[in-house]
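This section describes the prediction task in plain terms. A model, or a person checking by hand, is given the sequence of a single protein chain and must write out its three-dimensional structure as a string of tokens. No templates, partner chains or ligands are provided. The sample shown here is typical of the held-out split.
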Amino acid sequence: MSESAEDELVCILSSYDTDAQTVEVSRIETDGLILDVGGGGEGIIGRLNGEQVVAIDTHERELMETHNEAMKVVMDAADLKFLPKSFDVCTAFFSLMYIPKSIHQKVFEEVFRVLKDKGRFLIWDVRIPENIVGYKLFIVHLNVKLPNEEVGTAYGVRWQAQSLEHFKEMARLTGFKVTKESSKNEIFHLEMEKQI
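The expected answer:
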């Protein structure tokens, strides 16, 4: 067996896969612009809101593979290059799990800065428990139900524990007010508003 095939086998054997999780997402109601953090790949928010969306991702390839009408920009969510109060809504659709936990607070601060007063930050993500078994990867399988289509996908990351409570604490420390939260199985949704 080649070394690369052996490495791939080790990753497969040392990954934890969730059961398929279903998440329903509707068009985001806003007249303004939406910043989509990690908007590459399937580009779910861009599929919903098209030209209203500015999708950012640190990986150009992810943005190139996305087929929707969103504007696509290579950018780091911890160092946003937009002027303050540029967006009405910011979204993170299963993208915070890819960002090191050590910089989540910086991402929240940057989102807070570029949102208009009373702007909303919407997060969909997954609970990743403490890794007591020693898995290398965590993979969440999703069935995303949109108004006119369903998207089957999976998102896999190096193991990094995270929870709804972690993101609620990030919101509190930054000045966001949690206005809605929900969770089902291993996934959760959090809606926050920028307090002025």
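For orientation: Residues 81 and 180 are 28 Å apart (CA to CA).
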